[in-house]
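INPUT
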Amino acid sequence: MLPTSIELNDEAMELVARRFKLLSDPMRLKILHALHSGEKTVTEIVELTGSTQPNISKHLAALRNGGLVRRRSESNLAYFSIAAPFIFELCDRVCQSIATELDSLQKNFSLQNQTK
Amino acid sequence: MLPTSIELNDEAMELVARRFKLLSDPMRLKILHALHSGEKTVTEIVELTGSTQPNISKHLAALRNGGLVRRRSESNLAYFSIAAPFIFELCDRVCQSIATELDSLQKNFSLQNQTK
DNA sequence: TGACAAAATAACTATGTAGTTATATAGTGT
DNA sequence: ACACTATATAACTACATAGTTATTTTGTCA
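OUTPUT
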């Protein structure tokens, strides 16, 4: 019987997909963006994102569960911070790809509009 | 009235999130993985992934719509290929982060089991 | 034209999840 | 103990989407 390298692959894909999934929501991206400048309390994040407290708490729980943020308690405040800075590399790379595509769209548009 | 830099930000977050979302599904990752070694027909991808033809066609449409793959017609075959190779950089980076975390888990486990 | 194969699409089901509202928990200061 | 604030959790709604089955479209070849 062959070793199930296919199944191992499936598990790996699952793990990777789950990570990307954490980054595939605009509100979670806003939270991570808010934390880019340093740790923040839940209330601060609520204000920065314009969302509601329960919603932010839930997203923070997901991000924490996925290992992307860290939580620290002080008095009755919860301070959250980035635990996996590499996510910003990912975001930058994606932004770059988007910018490149917009650029070439623009270029094509110009070419189309050139008088020969 | 202030320029709505907040709203622009929201749009950017949407764009980035949508890109990550394409990568947040195991089956789509398997498809992209299958295309890593070169362009493939739909039927070939179906066989490599073990999924069904309609499911693969739908995922391919999503990936194409998101600019990640390209489609080429020849006779009555549809050849798909990678249009945005940078996605492999992203996947590699994520895999790396997972590996690092598994490593440190392993290390912690060893430390716990050390006799003093 | 008719039979066949490849791929796309439609309709449907089932599941996941973002956001809301209401409530519970926990820490602080009086 | 009480009031107050910060955060977490529960229950719910609404919507998106992965996968399935059935059907349609399109090209090839006889």
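end of record. Strands of chain B lie at 40-41, 69-74, 77-82.
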